[in-house]
Amino acid sequence: MVDNQAAAKALLYIFVPAVLLPLLVSCRSVPPTPPADPPSIRFLLTFDDGPSIKEPNPTLQILDQLATNALQPGIKALFFVQTGHPRGGGTPQGRDVMRRIHAEGHLLGLHSTSLRGHIDHTQVSTNELVRSLLDAKSLLREITGADPFFIRPPFGACNLTTRRIYKELGLHMLMADIRARDGVIYGYNGSLRRRSHIREGLTTLYRQSVTRVSPDEPVDVVLNFHDVNPYTARHMTDYLHILVEEAQRVGFHVPARPFFDRQDLMADAVLCQCVTHPVSPRGGP
Ligand SMILES: [Zn+2]
Question: Could you tell me what percent of the chain has a pLDDT over 90?
Answer without folding.
Answer: 69
